[in-house]
Structures are given as C-alpha cells and as structure tokens.
C-alpha cells in the first residue's frame, strides 16, 4: 500500500560541480557533471485538464434544437418558394439572412469557447486544495496575468521548499492581489454611480432600469479585472439577484414617494430620504460586486483577503463625499 | 540632593504600562534545549526584521510585510538593564564570516529590544498614532534546560535523591557517574561539612551531567543550572549533589554535609527556579520552543526516548491549570506558543510533512494542555539560516531531491539523507536511520537578507495579530 522507506544515498559532491547561489537556475548547469545513474530531473509539463465532455442535451435542449430545425426548414422552404416565383425582394433577404446566421454563429461559438475555458478554470480551482501547484503558471496565462509585475514577483519569491499550499497562498496574494484592488475600485465606482442616479431619479421604473443597467456593466468590469468572463450559470445566479435588487429598489422608491406625499413631508425630509435610498441602492450594488468577485477569481479568497462590505462602504461614502464636494465647489465657482 | 531614581523608575513603569495597555509591546521568549538553534534563530529573526522594510525583503508570507505596510525595524536600548544583551552583532558576524559559521551558543538569559514601525489598518490606531504605529518587541533568549527544573519545586531533597538513584539503574549512566559516586563512597549521614569536599563532589556531579549530555545525547539534566549556570557559575548555591549514600537516621546534624546539601537544594529551588518563573517567565507574551528532531533520530532509540521525555517535562511549564499554586505564584500570560522544528534544510522538502508530524507527536501532550489553557498553539518546520540547497535529480528513473552544502569542516556534501519515519520511529527505522548531516551556513553575499525557510510564517503567527 505505502511506498517503502527510502534510505540515504550519498552522491559525490565533486561531480555535482555546483555554482553558488544558483538554486533556481541550477538544473541546466549541472547536466554535464553528474554521476552516471543520475541526471537532472525535469518537471513534467503542467497537467492540462482534460477537455470537458460535450454537454448532454436535456429535454429543453432537444426542444430548442427541434424548433430551430423546424424554423430552418420553414425558412428554406419559404426562400425557395419566393425565389422560384422570381420576386426581387427575396434576393434582398438573402444577404440579411447570411449576416444574421454568421453573427449568431460567431456569437455562439464564442460563448461555447468561453464556457469551455470557464469549465477548465473551475476544474483547476476544484483541484487546488489537494496539493499540486504546477498548474499555476498555466492558470496565470489563461487569465492573462502572466505578463504582470505580480507574476514576476511570484516567480522570484517561490522557492523549492514551498509546499503547494504555500505557493498558492503566494500566488493569491502577489498575482491576484492587484486584480483584487482593481475590482474593488470598479465596485466603488459603479455602485456610487448607482447610488447617485437612484437618489436623483424620481420614478420607480427608472430606478429599476438604472440598477439593472449599472449592475450589468459592473459585472463585466469586474470579470475583466480577472481576465475571465462570467460563466452561464454564475451569470444567471447573479442576474436573478440583480432582478431581485431592482424589484426591491423599485418598490422602495414607490413606497417612499407615496408615503412622503401622504405625510406631506417637507423638502429637506424628501431630500434626506432620497439620499438614504440612493445609498441603499449603492450598497446592494456593492454586495453584488463582492459576490461577482468571488465568482470570477480563479483561486478562492483566503480569510484575510476576502473583501469586506464594511470596508467598501467606507470607500463608497468617501467617493460620494468627494463627488458631491466637487459638485458644490463647481456650483460656487459658476 | 534629591534622589531621582524612584521617580525615574515610576516613569519607566508608567510608560511600560501605557504601552502594554495600548497593546504596543510584546515580550517574545525563545527557548529550546542546547543545540536546538536558539541563537541562530534570534539572530536570523532580527536580521530579517531589520531588512523587512526594504524592497528585497524575503518574507512574502508575512502579511504586514507583503502588503508593504511595514516600514522597518531597528534595535533600541533595552528597558531591563540588569539582563545581559543578546549578542546579535557577534552572531551576525559569525554567520557572515569567511568561512561562515554558526553563532556561538548563549549560556544564559539575554534580551534584545526592537521597535517596529508600520501603517496600521485599525481605525483607532490610525486616529491615535497618526500615519505610523509602533510596536516594541522584546526578544528574550533562555535555555530550555531551566524549564526542566520545574518539577523540582514539588520535590524534597530526599525525594529528588531517590529519583536520581532510580535513573542510575541504567548501566550506561552508572558508568559515567562512577567517578562521582566513588568520590563520595566514604560518606554517610553524619559526615561533617567540608567546603573543599563539597566543591569537588559538585564538580564531579557536574562533569557526569556534561558527559551524559555529550556522550549519550541525554537532554534530561537536573538541575539545569549545573550545566548552564548563567551568572551563578561557581556560586555555593550550585555546590550540592543528590545524596546516594547512607542517609542520616532522623534529623541530620546541623553541621553535617547532608544538611548543607539539603539547605542548598532548597535555596536553589526557592531562588533560582521559582525566581526565574517569577521574574521572567511570568512576563512572557509569546513563546517559541525550538526542537531539533533530527539529531536524536540519528543517535538512536535511547536519545529519541530521552528527547520525548524531556520535552514532556519541559512542556509542563505551559500547563498552568494543573496546579493552582503555580498560577497563583506566577500568573503566567503566554497567549501564543509556537513549536518549531529547526534545521529543516537538513532534510529534503518532501520530508517536511513527516518532520512536522514528528514534532507534533513529540509535543502532543503539551499542545493539548496549552490549548486547554486558551493558548493558541502552532507547529512549524523552519530553518533560520539556510545551510543546504535542494536539487532534484533523476536517480534510477525516479526524481530524487538531494541536499547540497558544505560540511562543518569545509568539505562539500551532496546527500539524500533518507526518509524520516512516519510517526514514532520503530525498530525497522532504527535498522537504517537517516544519515547525519551537519552543514555550515551558506556564504552570504550581503545584497539582500539571508536565505531562510519559513521564518515569515513564524513571524505571521507570532506577531501578525499585533500589526493589523
């Protein structure tokens, strides 16, 4: 079951002609000087996770395929019919149709490739805890982080004695730390915009659309920071949440409007209610951003690195204060 | 003239109190049995800390340093003027010498004080301290042997003598103790006190303890101050031995040698042993216990069992709850305890897991008790200063990591020392134990901090929470 214990092996150090301070560069230099039965060990190529199998079609998939097939047949029938009749308009339809097919096909192909990459990332992430770290360079390349300064630092700081867990911790901190900061800035930016816009807009329906729009933009911006785009399912999960937020914000807007009218509140009361409502919308947006961060990040957060809503709230308030300050100083100047 | 000393003492106490109450002050104690690498550990730790603020710092897994919040550290004059200073300069000179050598071991208590400056993330500190916050770290070095004296506090002179008699049942120890036993063979319970004889007996007993340590690798030495007397070398309080000859019937005569030995034993207990716990141990906040697991694994089963037993005794010092009197007497307050297996560069990296498992099995009882006391405990495998380099080669078709370095005598070495046992070493292991390997430090080119192994994680555990 277990391997037998290995006992000591003494090599001749003279033959292992050893340049000083060459731990990282050494293996290549050693090659000519080794005892007969030893040679420099080459690390095997990092394992490329196997291609994910083709997705199996559920009943929904078959249904969609069937409808699509029927539609195509119908379309072809219609075209042939028209062309046979020699009506000139049908000739105009042809390029439009080709454009649509090419566009949709390209889009689908792109989606499919993205989905495959995301699956591979997910597989890497799932593998991460059980102790192989030589997939990290491939991961960095897949996320477009291989040219960053952080990656270079990671490579220089990693030493042979670091266990896979330590290498991952370093990777998470040095390589992904910068991306984390960028993502956090994006969250603050988009959620503060959402806050301001919601505070200004008077209509519930406008509020809802605003939150939808800003949140979607934020998701893409965050995904960009990590060099990935969101997967289908994670996008759906987040979208559902966005919708829920939008409904909440719309309802809150409607209730405050009606409530304030009933109570006959003064202007200042109306203003402060609006500001509070805007802030609430901004915070919901920020919370969503944090969730998007942990979905997009190729390695999961360590407890120390996990972004905290409290911290982002502070940043958000500061950002808003600065923006409002700018607004007022402009007013005074004009 | 007006005497300012009391006032200064008061001021000093107040400032200490203020720093303590603001949590800006950590007393970090480092201990371990002889040759476990205490001096090298402290020298390397201070060296790394002094370089931690610079660009080329090598502490990536220490959060505060990795995030760039640490501004730096410097040595500052210590506050306890009666404690000898730790010989940092001498240690560094040895490590960076030509050829590099390990620092000379220290033989008693010593101390060193550092001031760390950092950007705090805590809103309160940011408010109070402006842009930078400070943390004072006092590193205290003391021999682990002193902790072995703790059980003496509960023993009488007669009981202790009885215990030593039992130990001497082992023939190899009895052989070493023969000169001492021979010297006192004519003694009995009524022998009169003779200063010269007492000194000779004590010297013979001390020689026996040294021999047991050096020749048999025994670590369980009582009383600990005999081999590491610190400032008490040659003092009468260390001139006694256990009494293995006919004991006096009834109460010993006042002039007898037995009575004098008994008195000195009691004095030793009360002033040296209890005094150490009262004056020093009770003030430690964090404790590092360094253990050299490799040497006994090379020496044999007797040395291994001795290490296990010794560590068990040593760790009793962290079981406050077991005896209430102890808590009442010293009120210790250590809240983090780190067990570190030193010299991790003398085994290959794939064996570090096994080394950690060995360390944990050795310290099992102590860790459980310490955790029960509310002390946070961690075990780590580290090397303060790198002596060996790792190379991975193909040997008979399989990857094999060898350690390459320079032996203490200057000869180059390239060795795979063998696998460590998994858990307690069994008979099969002792058939082919790991190869002894003693390397000297790698030469230091002075362009950056010295190479180490996992000191950053030790720092994270010991100081990480104080530098938030």
From TrEMBL, chain A:
Entries under InterPro entries matching the protein: DUF697, UPF0283
Membrane topology (UniProt): Multi-pass membrane protein
Cell compartment(s), UniProt: Cell inner membrane
Biased composition (Pro residues): 44-53
First and last residue of the signal peptide: none
Superkingdom of origin organism: Bacteria
Residue numbers spanned by region Disordered: 1-53
Pfam families: DUF697
TM regions (residue ranges): 60-79, 91-109, 194-213
Record keywords: Cell inner membrane, Cell membrane, Membrane, Transmembrane, Transmembrane helix
NCBIfam families: hyp_HI0043
Family: Belongs to the UPF0283 family.
Protein name in UniProt: TIGR01620 family protein
Source organism per UniProt: Pseudaeromonas paramecii
TrEMBL record, chain B:
Domain of life: Bacteria
InterPro entries documented for this protein: YcjX-like
A Pfam family annotated for this UniProt entry: DUF463
Name of the protein: YcjX family protein
